[in-house]
Amino acid sequence: MSRVLTAARLHLVNPLVMLGIPWLVAGISFAINLALFGLTDAGADMEGGGFTAGVASLYITVLIVFVQAVTQLLPFAMGLSLSRRTFYLGTALVAVVQSLCYGVVLAALVAVEGATGGWGVDLAFWGPGTMDVDAFALQVVVSGGPMLAATSVGIGIGVVMKRWGQRGLWALIVGTLVVLGGLAVLVTWLEAWGDLGTWFGDRAVATLAAGVPAILAAALAALSWAGIRRTVP
């Protein structure tokens, strides 16, 4: 267990990158949206206030940071005689703890956002749309669930890049486009977009924002572990 913690601490060697960059990017996005809503009547013109997808910048940046963490730190970890298994477990530990902590911080920001009337300009940035729930504990789950999925995707992409290089990355991109495009064609052919929308609409927010990301994270964790076992530095 101590070696797993050692592997986890490797990710915090440069906290300005691991923790600072995601919040810097999200902070800039928030400042831009706040200025736009303050200078216009965007929030007042929308029933219930206005919201943007700007908080997605936080999730996307965390994903990229974890890609870099795997590709850059794995060789270093193996140079310190840490096994692939130890590095993977340490990375997974960081992902889980970070997702939980980010969920708490985001829940706090959503609470402040609600108490201040959307920062005084009717802006729902940190908890847009249905991602704004009433209970604080549920808000932690709703905000932290997608973060866990983002970290898992980042780890998975990093493993692909380390094991198969650029060819593997492009194969992953093309394969993802083919699968998603094929599903879109299938749903269109079946004329099932309305049924699909109804199904999602009937699901609870916790199911979509926590349950689905948890399933995705578990699947990606298994695939990433299978891939990293044969990865060379």
What is the strand and helix layout of this fold?
Elements: H1 2-10, H2 15-39, H3 42-45, E1 50-51, H4 56-79, H5 84-115, H6 118-122, E2 123-124, H7 136-189, H8 193-202, H9 205-228
Parallel strand pairs: 1-2
Helix pairs in contact: 1-5, 2-4, 4-5, 4-7, 5-7, 7-9
How many E strands?
Answer: 2
Number of domains: 1
User: What percent of residues are in strands?
Assistant: under 5%
Write down the overall mean pLDDT: 87
Count helical runs. Answer: 9
The global form is globular
Rounded Rg: 20 Å
* Major sheet details: 2 strands, parallel
Amino-to-carboxy terminus distance: 23 Å
Q: Residue ranges: pLDDT <50 for 5 or more in a row? A: none
Question: Helical content, roughly?
Answer: over 70%
H-E string: HHHEHHHEHHH
Query: What is the SS-derived class?
Result: mainly alpha
Placed side by side, the strands forming the largest sheet appear as 1-2
Can you give a write-up of this model?
With 233 residues, this protein is mainly α. It has one domain (2-166, 204-228). It is 80% helix and 2% strand. The chain contains 9 helices and 2 strands, in the order H-H-H-E-H-H-H-E-H-H-H. The chain has helices spanning 2-10, 15-39, 42-45, 56-79, 84-115, 118-122, 136-189, 193-202, 205-228, and strands at residues 50-51, 123-124. Strands 1-2 form a two-stranded parallel ribbon. The protein is globular and about 55 Å long. The chain starts with a helix and ends in a 5-residue tail after the last helix.
Summarize the structure.
With 233 residues, this protein is mostly helical.
